Structure formats: C-alpha cells, structure tokens
Amino acid sequence: IADIQDDIIEELVTREQIDAKIQEAAAQVSRDYADKDLLLVAVLKGAINTLAAFSQALSIQVSMDFMSLSSYGSGTESSGKITVRQDLSTDVRGRHVLIVEDIIDSGITLDWLIKELKNRGAASVEVFALLEKPARHKVHIDVKYPGYEIPDKFVVGFGLDYDEKYRNLDSIAVLNPKVYQGDQE
Ligand code: PRP
Ligand code: MN
Ligand code: MG
C-alpha cells in the first residue's frame, strides 16, 4: 500500500496556514450574518474538509447542505461540463446561501452553481473558497470571502483529489506530475 506522501513534491499551504485563513473568513462571516439565517452549501467532494473546519470556526448558528458536482473526472483539466452527482435536499428559495468551496480553477463550477442557486430563488449567494488559481480563470467569479491565491500547479490534499486519491492529506501539496503523466515515465 502506497504512503500518502510518496507522490508529493512540496507542501504549498501548511495546515497552520489553512486554519488561519479559515478562522479569518469564519470571523468575518460570523459578523456579516449575525442577524441572518445562513445556509452553507458545500460543493462535494472537494469542499468536505473546508466545510468541516470552516463551520466549526463559525460563532453563529447555520444550516448546512451539500451538492456533489464534478467537472474533472479523472483528468487534471476541467471538462467544462458540470455533472450533478447529488443535489441539495434543501429548497434555497428565500435563503441566504454561502457556498463553501475548496478551489476556484477555471471558475466554471462556481459560475454554474451561483447561477443555479439564484435561479432557484436564493435571497443572496456569496462564496468562500479556500484556494484560487488566478492564472487559470476562464470566467470571473465574485468571491466575497477569498482564500489563498496559488500558482498554476496541480495540487491535492485537504479535500482536493487527483483521480479520487489524496483527499485525506492534511495540507495542500503539489502532486508529482509523473503521477498523471503515467505512460511517459
Ligand atoms: C474540483 C474542485 C472544484 C472545481 C474547481 O472539483 O473541487 O469544485 O473542480 O474547478 P473549476 O473552477 O475549473 O470548475 P471536481 O470536479 O474535481 O470534483 P470533486 O470536488 O469531487 O473532486
Ligand atoms: Mn469540487
Ligand atoms: Mg476533483
């Protein structure tokens, strides 16, 4: 059985940095929504760790729901097409929604989700994304609670996967390209 560190080149965002950013965003969100009924919508599967840490860092009461969206499949580039693997169980009509996401890459996933939640009648839709890759944006996303900007390297850990693996790494790290360049080794 392979060790989870075997295919990692370098750590890019430490667990301490992750926690600091999440605390900062959670403090701001707790202030901004102090008198509102907030629904957190986590984008599975990647946002699972961010949602868990972020929700525990909030000082206000919130509800949570989940939507499982996929655009990457087993590749390292967005297919540009969003597949809904699992929908929300909550009616968002009239709700104040905060989307919790692990990373904004091309922006296609969040562009789709923000429009979808507004179409369903959400009272407001804002975003907290732990990571962002500005070099790869194809669409602009308004992010009220931004996280770390990272370079254009394929990263895994803290929820982020390559081919469904490495999500359980406890920090954000650069994956050795030999893992996804398989046959060229
Ligand atoms: C990844 C990531 C974001 C999205 C970002 O999800 O977790 O949700 O891609 O990319 P984009 O800005 O180019 O749309 P993925 O499709 O890999 O599904 P997963 O969360 O289940 O891993
Ligand atoms: Mn995702
Ligand atoms: Mg993925």
Largest sheet: 6 strands, mixed
Distance between the termini: 20 Å
> Given the structure, what is the number of helices?
3
Radius of gyration: 16 Å
Determine the strand fraction and express it as a percent band: 25-35%
* Strands ordered across the widest β-sheet: 4-3-2-5-6-7
What share of residues is helical?
A: 10-25%
Please mark out the parts with pLDDT under 50 across 5 or more consecutive residues, or reply none: none
Distinct small molecules bound, one entry per kind: 1-O-pyrophosphono-5-O-phosphono-alpha-D-ribofuranose, manganese (II) ion, magnesium ion
Question: By helix and strand content, what is the structural category?
Answer: alpha/beta
CATH class category? Alpha Beta
Number of domains: 1
User: How many beta-strand runs?
Assistant: 9
CATH topology: Rossmann fold
* SSE string: EHEHEEEHEEEE
Task: Examine the secondary-structure arrangement and name the CATH architecture.
Answer: 3-Layer(aba) Sandwich
| Apparent shape | globular
Q: State mean pLDDT (0 to 100 scale).
A: 95
